[in-house]
Amino acid sequence: MEIKAAVTHRQGEAFKLEPVQLADPALGEIRVRIVATGVCHTDAVARDLGIAPFPIVLGHEGAGVVDAVGEGVTDLKPGDHVVLSFAHCGGCGNCLTGHPTVCDTFNDLNFGGAMDDGSHRLSQGDQELATFFGQSSFGTYAVVSARNAVKVDPEVDLALLGPLGCGIQTGAGTVLNRLKPDFGSSIVVYGCGAVGLSAVMAARIAGCQHIVAVDVHDSRLELARELGATHAFNGKTTDVVEEVRKLTGGGSHFAVETTGVPQVVKQSLNALRPLGTCAIVGVTPEVTLDVHNDLMAEGKSMIGVIEGDSVPRVFIPQLIAYFKAGQFPFDKLVRYYEFDQIDQAFEDSASGKTIKPILKIG
């Protein structure tokens, strides 16, 4: 079938809304009419740095309605509302033990540009187009593995839900699935974008006593307070390490580092108490650490977390339940754009004007 998609033909080029051919779903796949999709920094990285092959249709926070199912799909049917998340094989040791975010073939399935079987579903004439994150949600329809699709409550506005498939679950899942803070513990979240603010909301759900938000934009710190932060520090004007130690009586139990800035990574470690744990979720360049003084001497831990260590079919419905109960108001992070405003959405995301852009597609 012919669809409309935002095609990136070469590294660094602007998106072009063009007709694209979409093949029918194969074994174990479904076709989804995309209602809306989140705009994520990872899409910009893929466009500008070439972490996936070109030409490509990007987009990996899709939400839509199942339109058709391929052979072998028994748990989804046409009309179901779904959120699309990352691709994973479902059969390796990590997938089978509840950690699909570190699937043995995660990089190939999400950044390799092809479907599970190595074939393609998108094309323009004789030119095959690469798929991104197993979904390519910057299009009016997408064919995805049924494993990537999470059936969701049809009573909740589907246009809002796409970012749960990546950015929102990354922040919330890092706290609730990986760090699992004890009630009354302390946590510092570095960076108040969509990932960081989701971590703040999750920390409130977990019952943390001290929830500290750190950013360089006062407007985002105000929103962090509204969403559950007990304290908010501007990293430009505050000695964050000193203030965190003073507030918590020696340092925080946990930290979530979302910025990827080497100086902030070190800051997040220095502000931990002995035996504290810092989760790194930002794309971080090379960082030089004094392993003895920064980690070993005080028994501190630094861990990497992908996609919030989430099992999407379990965790995304949990987040929706928290949202319906008023405990996870992630709708306060979003701003909607029409599909043909895709370039503006990316510009506003990069400038910080919008925390989480969502493209309304169909």
TrEMBL record:
<dbReference type="InterPro" id="IPR011032">
    <property type="entry name" value="GroES-like_sf"/>
</dbReference>
<dbReference type="GO" id="GO:0046294">
    <property type="term" value="P:formaldehyde catabolic process"/>
</dbReference>
<protein>
    <submittedName>
        <fullName>Aryl-alcohol dehydrogenase</fullName>
    </submittedName>
</protein>
<dbReference type="GO" id="GO:0005829">
    <property type="term" value="C:cytosol"/>
</dbReference>
<dbReference type="Pfam" id="PF08240">
    <property type="entry name" value="ADH_N"/>
</dbReference>
<dbReference type="InterPro" id="IPR013154">
    <property type="entry name" value="ADH-like_N"/>
</dbReference>
<keyword id="KW-0560">Oxidoreductase</keyword>
<dbReference type="InterPro" id="IPR020843">
    <property type="entry name" value="ER"/>
</dbReference>
<keyword id="KW-0520">NAD</keyword>
<dbReference type="InterPro" id="IPR013149">
    <property type="entry name" value="ADH-like_C"/>
</dbReference>
<comment type="similarity">
    <text>Belongs to the zinc-containing alcohol dehydrogenase family.</text>
</comment>
<dbReference type="InterPro" id="IPR036291">
    <property type="entry name" value="NAD(P)-bd_dom_sf"/>
</dbReference>
<dbReference type="GO" id="GO:0008270">
    <property type="term" value="F:zinc ion binding"/>
</dbReference>
<keyword id="KW-0479">Metal-binding</keyword>
<dbReference type="InterPro" id="IPR002328">
    <property type="entry name" value="ADH_Zn_CS"/>
</dbReference>
<dbReference type="Pfam" id="PF00107">
    <property type="entry name" value="ADH_zinc_N"/>
</dbReference>
<feature type="domain" description="Enoyl reductase (ER)">
    <location>
        <begin position="12"/>
        <end position="359"/>
    </location>
</feature>
<keyword id="KW-0862">Zinc</keyword>
<dbReference type="GO" id="GO:0051903">
    <property type="term" value="F:S-(hydroxymethyl)glutathione dehydrogenase [NAD(P)+] activity"/>
</dbReference>
